[in-house]
Inverse folding.
């Protein structure tokens, strides 16, 4: 049976909701057939990608303002999952974020979030949209 | 955050008793590790046996602890990494940075 799921979630600009959204991503992945993708791997990846992208919106784009909101849209079909995370902050330039330094002698505490998202998704874009910005992440479900 | 700290054979063992170590709670672990090193603790083991999920903030706090320990000629070891947590260390290549053991006892034996 062909599957098509669309979810729209709005949460306050607070990290306490990360576990809830991560769990939704995990449960969504488990709806899929193992012949389409490795469900456990996908569940783990959706949890991480949703967490990292929402933290990014809360802390960097929305500047930890508790009065703002983060809006998340998840669309899944048999061939692709796409996640859109909307913020209403001033935004940032995705292309200026460097890869983390892997040298044990010059480790940085921060700077792994976007690298982790890029490692798990096929495409990652951040652009201006009406009244804010959107981080758009897509992943094909045909190759795990 | 639910953290339990024990002294065992001269080493402080910090048990992170949470399913998630993420941006919502990792600052509390950072405060605990900072406190331990500030009061002169040299050797720390962080047990992550109960942690099923870690994000970049959680990893960052452990990196902060590693740098703090190194500055003070101390050590920080990790134990009990679940599969998903271990894969995050591998993805970010932090498995090459930390001494990682299966259990707290293994970490204590390799001093």
């Amino acid at each position: 049976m062909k599957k098509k799921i669309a979810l729209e979630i709005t949460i306050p600009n607070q990290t306490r909701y990360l576990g809830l959204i991560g769990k939704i991503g995990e449960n969504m992945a488990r709806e899929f057939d193992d012949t389409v993708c490795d469900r456990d791997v996908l569940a783990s990846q959706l949890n991480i990608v949703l967490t990292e992208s929402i933290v990014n919106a809360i802390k960097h784009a929305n500047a930890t303002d508790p009065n703002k909101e983060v809006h998340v849209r998840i669309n899944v079909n048999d061939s692709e999952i796409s996640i859109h995370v909307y913020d209403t902050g001033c935004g940032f330039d995705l292309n200026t974020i460097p890869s983390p330094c892997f040298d044990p002698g010059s480790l940085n505490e921060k700077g792994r979030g976007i690298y982790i998202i890029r490692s798990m998704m096929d495409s990652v874009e951040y652009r201006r949209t009406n009244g804010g910005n959107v981080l758009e992440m897509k992943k094909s479900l045909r190759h795990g | 955050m639910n953290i339990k700290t024990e002294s065992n054979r001269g080493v402080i063992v910090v048990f992170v008793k949470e399913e998630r170590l993420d941006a919502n709670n990792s600052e509390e672990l950072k405060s605990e590790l900072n406190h331990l090193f500030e009061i002169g603790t040299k050797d720390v083991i962080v047990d992550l046996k109960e942690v099923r999920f870690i994000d970049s903030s959680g990893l960052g706090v452990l990196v902060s602890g590693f740098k703090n320990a190194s500055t003070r000629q101390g050590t920080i070891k990790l134990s009990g990494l679940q599969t998903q947590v271990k894969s995050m260390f591998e993805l970010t290549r932090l498995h090459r940075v930390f001494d990682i053991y299966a259990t707290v006892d293994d970490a204590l034996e390799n001093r």
Remarks:
- The first strand of chain A starts at residue 4 and ends at 12.
- Residues 127 and 133 of chain A are 6 Å apart (CA to CA).
